[in-house]
Every structure is written in structure tokens, then in C-alpha cells.
Amino acid sequence: MKITRKLSEDIYYIGTADRRIALFENLFPLVNGVSYNSYFIDDEKTAVMDTVDRFVSDSFFDNLDYLLAGRPLDYLIIHHMEPDHGANIGSLIEKYPDMKVVASAKAIQMIKQFFNIDLGARAIIVKDGDRLELGRHTLHFMTAAMVHWPEVIMTYDSTDGILFSADAFGTFGALDGCIFNDEIVIDSKWYDEARRYYANIVGKYGIQVQTALKKAASLDIKIIAPLHGPVWRKNIAEFISKYDMWSKYQPEEKGVLIAYASMYGNTETAANALALALADRGITNQAVRDVSSTDTSELISLAWKYSHIIIASPTYNLNLHPKMEHFVTDMKALNLQNRTVAIVENGSWSPAVIKNVTEIMSSMKNITIMEEKISAKSALHHNEPIEKLAAVLAGDIRK
Ligand code: FEO
Q1: Residues 89, 115: contact at Cβ < 8 Å?
Q2: Predicted local confidence at residue 280, as pLDDT
Q3: Which atom of ligand 1 lies nearest, measured to the CA of 36?
Q4: Phi and psi for 331 in degrees, rounded to 5?
Q5: Structure pTM?
Q6: C-alpha of residue 170 to centroid of ligand 1, in Å
Q7: Cα–Cα distance between 162 and 156 in angstroms, integer?
Q8: Atom 2, ligand 1: which residue's CA is nearest?
Q9: Which atom of ligand 1 is nearest to the CA of 149?
């Protein structure tokens, strides 16, 4: 059955939506599923660009059978081995015994690891600058190691100007019939989700993303075809500039994320008071989030967005509240840089938040921890410390 749309004269989208999945990587909540993108090139030689997750295999194989219409599949081009794309590699290799597998050396090694298949002469190992002629199409390969796995490559089709970008430029969210970015509303809410994908999946590897962007800069890219989310064929520069900013760890906006943990409401009251005091001073670009009811992936996305981050937490087992500890250590694990952080601690007998946050975050790159801090014993009873911190913060945000 045909379940496809065309990207160009002879290139087809053969991915599919998964709207049943609740957690991507069994970790990140999905509000509207995810798409697994795969592409088919119907040239003198036929080629498939990646497969899909095993939960949606049937649709992929149906589509491929329909498009091949009895012809052999000549090439499988593997950009990324993570099983949300690579799950059907073993089945394809078995189904098409003459098919060649085009991938990095590392990916060929991973095929052995995942499927216990030794490809031998069927493997075509590619590196930067290698080409493959399919007939009308010429494919050019470039390595993109650690965006976000070591075996990743991207492919540029110089015939139609399409960059097959692997996970880069991917996003969460199932695609409906509208698979192109100019068919959907790309607004700030959409970018919030795109950033959540970028920061949590690829964020740690900013240097490697920068390297990939530099390699792609000389290409005449008309379409970006990622492994998740919409295919970009309009305003490509806009999305590339977001990636450039995110991968340089530059804040997207001057503003503040107030992330708080609170067991009985006292730290929450302080966080709310600070938000109001900031708004009083004209700092309205703010997000206030309870770390206990907000998924860490959303907090990470907001940390990538704003220039300033306020950590407000009670002391728990002489450390941070566990939910806050997860957020703070995740920012460090993902290599967040270039932010200004203010700390509000609470503790009824031995407050330890300032000490612990300072220890964790001072080892991160270009993180400024503000001198002005608040240390509460159980609860705040006067506005003075809040107003003082808000004044200093507002001045710093406006700088
Ligand atoms: Fe979408 Fe890294 O796999």
C-alpha cells in the first residue's frame, strides 16, 4: 500500500508517525508522538535512507514494497544506527540479499553488534568526500560523528539539493499529512518542542554540531530531510540559525527561568515573590516551573532558552531536593554554558543548597553564579531579600 509523499521528482518520504509512544527513549514524555522518517530514491539504482522503529515496521515495508514494485533494492544508506531508525536493518539485509549497505565504518561495526551480521563485501564504507552515483542522483557523504552517536553520517544529494541530516534538525511530534515545514505552523511553541529535542538529545555535543554546520555551509541546500519531524523546504536559514545558536550555547532570549522545588510551599512562595518582583521591574520574559511537576526535559529546554536561571530549593539530606538535583546535574551533563545563575536556598537546620549548586555549576563552562543570594531558614517573613535579589537580577538581565 502507498503511504507516501514526494520530496522531489523521484524521492519519496517513507517514514511514519507513532502516536502511541508515551516516552521517547523510554525517557522523554511525548505530547504528540514522534515521526520516524525514512526516504526512498527511485533512480536507476534504488536506495533507502535509514529504516524506522520496530513498532512501525509494517508500514515501512508496505510502502517500500509498493514503491519498488518488484524491483530489487540496491542500496541501504545508514546515517544513524540508533534503533529508532535502525531497527529494521537486519530484516532488510535478509530480505534483499544483493543490497549493499552504505555507512561509516563505525556503523558497519554496530550492525555486527546489534544484529550479529557480518556484511563482508556487501558493506560500502564511506567517509568525508565519498560519492555514490545512482543514475540521476549523486550522493555525497560527510561524517557527523557525535551528532549524537559516533557512527553518524549525513548525505547531500547534489541533484535535488537535499541534505539528509540524520537526527540533526529533528524534532519531537508525529507528522500528520503535512510533512513539510511550510505546511505546519512554526511558531514559538513549535520551537519550544524543537529546542526540547535538540537540548536533550544533541545538546551535549555543541562542538560536533558546529563542525557539521561548517561542513554543510558550502552546500546549496534546498531541502533538509531529518530523521524526525518535518522536512524543511522553506525558511531553512531560520532553523539553521537556531541550531547555530543552540550549539554555541548562546541564550536565545534575555529572560529568566525560575525553577523551584518546594515540599510544603515556603520555597515556592519565595520563587513566586521573586517572579512578581522581577515583573515589577519590567522583566516579563520569564518562566516559573515547579521541578516536581515539570519534566526535566522541559526544564532543560527552558535553560537553553533563557539567559538567566534561578535555582530555588529546600535542603534535602544535606543536598538539593532530589528533583532539583536531577535538573542541575542534567544541565551539567548536557554541557550547558554561558548562563547567569542565582540561588535561593531553604533549610530548617543546615541549609546546603548554595554550597551544592555552587560546587556543581562552578565546574561548568562560563556559568556566572551571582553574588546576591537568598538563604532562608524554613520560610521568608520579609520581602527585603527578594527585592534586593530582584533588583540585581533585573539590572543584570537588562545589561
Ligand atoms: Fe532518532 Fe538518535 O535516534
Answers
A1: yes
A2: 98
A3: 1
A4: -60, -40
A5: 0.97
A6: 9
A7: 6
A8: 82
A9: 2
Distance between CA atoms of residues 310 and 289, nearest Å: 10
At 233 the pLDDT is 98
State how beta strands 34-36 and 16-18 pair: antiparallel
Give the three cell numbers for residue 355. Answer: 554550597
What type of residue sits at position 281? Answer: R
DSSP 362: T
Q: What is the pLDDT of residue 274?
A: 98
Instruction: Give the number of other CB atoms < 10 A from CB of residue 58.
Output: 12
The answer, yes or no, to whether any atom of ligand 1 lies below 6 A from the CB of 298, is: no
pLDDT of residue 58: 95
Give the domain-ending residue among 247, 277, 293.
247
Q: Say yes or no: 242 and 269 in one domain.
A: no
Domain tally for the chain? 2
pLDDT, tens digit, 9 for 90 and up, residues 4-54: 999 999 999 999 999 999 999 999 999 999 999 999 999 999 999 999 999
Q: How far is the CA of 167 from the centre of ligand 1 (A)?
A: 5
Kindly report the CATH number assigned to the domain that includes residue 22: 3.60.15.10
The verdict on 58 and 103 lying in the same domain is yes
Residue carrying C-alpha cell 517513507? 14
Percent pLDDT > 90 in the chain is: 99
Q: In whole angstroms, how far apart are CA 173 and each of 23, 28, 105, 265?
A: 12, 12, 31, 34
Q: Which of 225, 247, 269 is the last residue of a domain?
A: 247
What digits encode the pLDDT tens for the residues 201-238?
999 999 999 999 999 999 999 999 999 999 999 999 99
Q: Beta 153-157 vs 162-164: how paired, if at all?
A: antiparallel
**Contacts of residue 2, Cβ cutoff 8 Å, sequence gap at least 6:** 63, 66, 67
372 — pLDDT class (breaks 50, 70, 90): very high
Distance of CA 209 to the CA centre of its chain: 11
The rounded distance, in Å, linking the Cα atoms of 181 and 240 is: 13
| CATH, residue 328 | 3.40.50.360
Total count of residues recorded for the chain:
399
Domain that residue 334 falls in: 253-397
Spatial separation of the C-alpha atoms in residues 38 and 56, rounded to whole Å: 12
pLDDT higher than 90, residue 2: no
Residue linked to cell 525558511: 235
The residue with cell 518535518 is: 230
